[in-house]
Write a structure and sequence with these properties.
alpha/beta; Transcription Regulator spoIIAA; globular; Archaeosine Trna-guanine Transglycosylase, Chain: A, domain 4; 3 domains; Rossmann fold; single chain; six-stranded mixed sheet; 11 helices; binds S-adenosyl-L-homocysteine
């Protein structure tokens, strides 16, 4: 079933970008099924791609393939096989038993995320296309991994844009309560992950290497871990010999899990403190109290999921980074992140620079951080590069 693009609107597809926006479409012959496969043709009728149709989304279709090949179970088997094999080749499982096996557009499978936590696969289907093929994909995943359990966490807000309601629960096999509260081991440290209720698929796998970096830099420092969630950075800072770590989050549930993660790694509870509250307010309070730290980690939630919220997001980033610069002692380290798709690396760096300027602080960037290698970025899909981090040293 074909969809025809407007004249000139084939350009992004020729550059192998996988999204077709509704405004680029001239006409659709018959209304295709939600998630069904359509041929995308130029205004002249030339074949451009085969894509999954999404009747209500602004992104009206997402490309499965730029070749005139069948989109069927064999197609998905090849894609899934190669994504999983790639992770083996990259030797990523040497340091962790929790890893992203399939990262959506970046692995040529728009809308599909699959993470492995020990013997359990957690699947997130975000688009009509991945939804259409979900059962086929689930069968192939079991065959390709030799595992028997898939837990579904298709409860991300973006599904709404695709006209899909949230779905969670067992997709294949059975799962015990013990498995749902799985303890991962990452770079020798243990974290209890709640696969049913945790953020994303349970844990921020994308920060894996950055947690390790914090461990390496934390020795003898007073550390403030803002937006700590279940304590990924906190535990690493303590393991790296931090003098003290204060973990801050607005979620009491998340904070409750931090202490458990500190304890299960045999780390000194007397060096660790927690504080429930709003980071924006607490940073101001700490400033007014004249408190100071040697390392501050800022890993806030997505302030700008898309480019529409960029201005508001920029103000929020500026606010917390400015306050953090003020709270750092000379020689102190700011480890600051943005996971907003709408804020690119260049803009984020400019925001952090403006924060230092307004704080009256001189600082250097000593390192650029990004998402771990199991979250690769297809070069023709720069949107896949969402996590940016800077390690700055205050002079
Ligand atoms: N650093 C974490 C991930 C952070 S996720 C890790 O590596 O695992 C973002 C966290 O920010 C969530 O736990 C959420 O509860 C918290 N949060 C969101 N808005 C907040 C606010 N205004 N103040 C404090 N915490 C907030």
């Amino acid at each position: 079933m074909p969809i025809f693009l407007k004249p000139g609107r084939e350009k992004s597809l020729l550059r192998r970008h996988p999204w077709i926006f509704s405004g680029a479409i001239q006409r659709v012959d018959d209304e295709p099924a939600s998630g069904g496969t359509v041929d995308v043709l130029s205004s002249k009728g030339d074949f451009l791609a085969r894509a999954a149709y999404s009747p209500t989304s602004q992104i009206r279709a997402r490309v499965w393939t730029f070749d005139e090949e069948p989109v069927d179970a064999d197609f998905f088997r090849r894609k899934i096989h190669s994504a999983i094999r790639a992770r083996e080749t990259w030797n990523l499982t040497r340091d962790t038993d929790a890893i992203r096996l399939i990262y959506a557009e970046s692995d040529g499978l728009p809308g599909l995320i699959v993470d492995r936590y020990g013997d359990v696969l957690v699947l997130q289907s975000l688009t009509t296309g991945s939804e259409f093929w979900k059962q086929t994909i689930a069968d192939i995943l079991l065959e390709e991994t030799g595992l028997s359990t898939i837990y579904e966490r298709s409860d991300a807000d973006v599904r709404e844009l695709e006209g899909l309601s949230p779905v969670t629960g067992i997709l294949r096999g059975t799962i015990t309560n013990h498995q749902l509260r799985f303890t991962i081991t990452e770079h020798g440290l243990k974290f209890t992950v709640n696969l049913a209720e945790g953020h994303k698929t349970g844990f921020y796998l994308d920060q894996r290497m950055n947690r390790l970096r914090v461990r390496e830099l934390a020795q003898d420092r007073d550390v403030l871990d803002c937006f700590c969630y279940t304590g990924g950075f906190t535990v690493n800072a303590l393991a790296g010999g931090a003098k003290s770590v204060l973990s801050v989050d607005s979620s009491a549930d998340a904070l409750g899990l931090v202490s458990g993660n500190v304890a299960s790694n045999g780390l000194p509870a007397e060096r660790h403190a927690r504080r429930e509250g709003d980071v924006f307010q607490l940073l101001r309070k700490f400033r007014d109290e004249g408190r100071a730290f040697d390392m501050i980690i800022l890993d806030p939630p997505k302030f700008a999921p898309t480019s529409a919220q960029v201005e508001k997001a920029a103000r929020a980033y500026k606010d917390i980074n400015l306050l953090a610069f003020k709270l750092l002692r000379a020689g102190g380290i700011l480890v600051t992140f943005s996971c907003s798709g709408g804020v690119d690396a260049g803009l984020f760096q400019r925001i952090v620079a403006a924060s230092a300027l307004d704080a009256g602080v001189e600082a250097q960037i000593v390192e650029h951080l990004a998402q771990a290698a199991d979250h690769p970025v297809a070069l023709h899909f720069p949107e896949g590069a969402y996590l940016k981090g800077l390690v700055c040293v205050k002079r």
